[in-house]
Specification:
10 helices, alpha/beta, globular, 8 strands, about 300 residues, 8-stranded parallel β-sheet, Arginase, Chain A
Length: about 300
């Protein structure tokens, strides 16, 4: 891992069904993300918040789809910001709803391709976000980034495909527990590795994650981690608008982060779907900061005591 962390704010809320995710970047900063990383001996460069450019005049035939011009503008702006940050250190993207990953991962993929290294993605989420513009019933575009990034059909000419499409075989999704029928069919057709919470309950997180990390290492790949607040159980992380009971526990989440750090394969990180308006005294923001610190090298004996 790089010893310089680049913090990039992505105050995106247009892809979600309720307001509040645009406050996420400020909450991470207030919760002490930069200070936690510096305490690990890392250099921290905060590049502030990205802003979208001019909104394109685009539409789609599915009347449910909303904020499509905003989605396209954010994808372009975040793609450029991610590409630039990847060349300077370890980017950590502070969201913002999960539609932001259409931009961050496309930029990371461009940088990985220039280095001639395959990009792998670990998607830690209750939802696969594998809808297309055609298949989404809600029209909330935080449900489409992985289908878009992997070049799935159903997007038409509404916006250009990603510059470097992501190989679906290089994606592992863990923690799923809310998957629509259209997404289930698309995931099976695309060949994405999927581990729902039942798989984690039956076998434990360790063998599933270890097998994926071994694949990344064998391919000399670089790994991007996209961590959604709703990967976690809402009992410990209430600040998300898409709560699904039965998520990862405190220890399962930290164990995943510790294994990712030990692998030495992670090159970038999304922290997404934090809605501070729904939080309880900042507890979710603080937990997400702790998880990011674990991924960057904090050991279990170094964890601070929290009082809520």
């Amino acid at each position: 891992m790089h010893d310089t962390c680049i913090l990039v704010g992505a105050p995106v809320q247009d892809g979600a069904g309720r307001r509040g995710c645009d406050m996420g970047p400020s909450a991470y900063r207030t919760a002490g993300l930069g200070e936690a990383l510096e305490a690990l001996g890392l250099r921290v460069q905060d590049r502030g918040n990205v802003a979208p450019g001019q909104l394109p005049a685009i539409t789609h035939a599915n009347p449910a789809v909303h904020h499509l011009p905003e989605f396209a503008a954010w994808t372009q702006a975040l793609g450029d910001a991610a590409y630039e940050a990847a060349g300077a250190g370890f980017p950590i993207f502070l969201g913002g709803d999960h539609s932001l990953s259409a931009g961050t991962i496309s930029g990371i993929a461009r940088h990985a391709a220039e280095r001639r290294r395959p990009l792998f993605v670990l998607w830690l989420d209750a939802h696969p976000d594998f809808h297309s513009f055609e298949s989404t019933a809600s029209g909330n575009l935080h449900g489409v980034p992985m289908a878009y990034l992997t070049g799935q059909p159903g997007f038409g000419d509404a916006m250009p495909p990603p510059p470097v499409p992501l190989d679906p075989a290089h994606v592992a999704m863990m923690g799923l527990r809310s998957v629509d029928p259209a997404e289930r069919a698309a995931l099976a057709w695309a060949g994405v590795t999927v581990h729902d919470m039942r798989a984690i309950d039956e076998t434990g997180l360790v063998p599933l994650l270890r097998a994926f990390l071994e694949r990344v290492s064998a391919a000399n790949g670089v790994l991007h981690v996209s961590l959604d607040v709703d990967f976690l159980d809402p009992g410990i992380a209430p600040a998300v608008g898409t709560t699904v009971p039965g998520g990862a526990t405190f220890r399962e989440a930290h164990l995943a982060m510790e294994m990712l750090h030990d692998s030495g394969l992670v090159g970038s990180l999304d922290l997404v779907e934090l809605n501070p308006f729904l939080d309880e005294r900042g507890r979710t923001a603080l937990l997400m900061v702790d998880l990011a610190a674990s991924l960057m090298g904090r050991q279990i004996f170094d964890r601070p005591t929290r009082s809520f």
